């Protein structure tokens, strides 16, 4: 029973989806900060300020709603970078090592591709002998094609 659970957790697509979700959550924090601290004060300035930190007061001094808070946005960018570094070094790197021991390539760059001259598919692996879509024989890698 535990072996099945371990195999479920170690499936590549589960980890990829989890990392994608983590990136999306961190990116949403960055976007929220941008909208709360840069866009919202510009909109509030149209309705009618004091200095609250790093940024500019767009309206009457003391009005926090019209303060363009660049400091909070920079803080969110720093948070995003640190968070992504933690995800990479604590989740992605160990996962890649575990998957490499199992003989599976995880988070690897896609190999070289070529275009099939018959059906014009652009995602045929460079070393392929036949097109996966139309079955046409492909020229060997490194040989020139003649029309």
From TrEMBL:
It is a multi-pass membrane protein. GO terms for molecular function: mechanosensitive monoatomic ion channel activity. InterPro entries: MSC/AndL, MscL_channel. It is found in: Membrane. Keywords: Membrane, Transmembrane, Transmembrane helix. The keyword Transmembrane helix applies. The chain crosses the membrane at residues 12-31, 70-93. It comes from the Bacteria. One of its GO terms (cellular component) is membrane. This is Mechanosensitive ion channel protein MscL. It comes from Streptomyces monashensis.
């Amino acid at each position: 029973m535990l072996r099945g659970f371990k195999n479920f957790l170690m499936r590549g697509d589960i980890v990829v989806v989890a990392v994608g979700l983590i990136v999306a959550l961190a990116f949403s924090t960055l976007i929220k900060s941008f909208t709360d601290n840069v866009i919202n004060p510009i909109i509030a300035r149209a309705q009618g300020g004091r200095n609250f930190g790093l940024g500019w007061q767009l309206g009457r001094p003391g009005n926090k709603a019209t303060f363009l808070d660049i400091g909070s946005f920079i803080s969110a960018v720093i948070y995003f970078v640190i968070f992504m570094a933690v995800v990479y070094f604590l989740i992605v790197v160990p996962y890649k090592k575990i998957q490499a021991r199992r003989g599976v390539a995880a988070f690897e760059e896609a190999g070289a591709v070529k275009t099939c001259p018959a059906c014009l598919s652009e995602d045929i692996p460079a070393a392929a002998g036949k097109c996966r879509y139309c079955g046409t024989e492909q020229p060997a890698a490194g040989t020139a094609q003649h029309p």
